[in-house]
Amino acid sequence: MYRFIQNISNFLARFGKDRYLHFIVSLILTQFLAAALHILGAGNHSLIAAPLIVICLGFAKEWMDERNGGEFEPYDIVWDFLGMFAGLVLMILILA
Hints:
- The protein is mainly α.
- It has helices spanning 2-13, 17-42, 46-67, 74-95.
């Protein structure tokens, strides 16, 4: 069992904490925006608008990084998408 947990830990350590931050921020932001838009009267359209806004913010963040001397990292966009998708699934499960 210890070896199994160690293998999982080594697998997850390969991605780096920046990727996890992209995932977590996208997940939380998707849920927050969907809830806020739903409260403001967007209804079920909030489940479409919130993920689109979050992905656009992810692209904007990478674009700003590139503009300020960094580099555009496509894997950050992938982790943003995964976080957005997880947040959307959780939001749907909450509303169901």
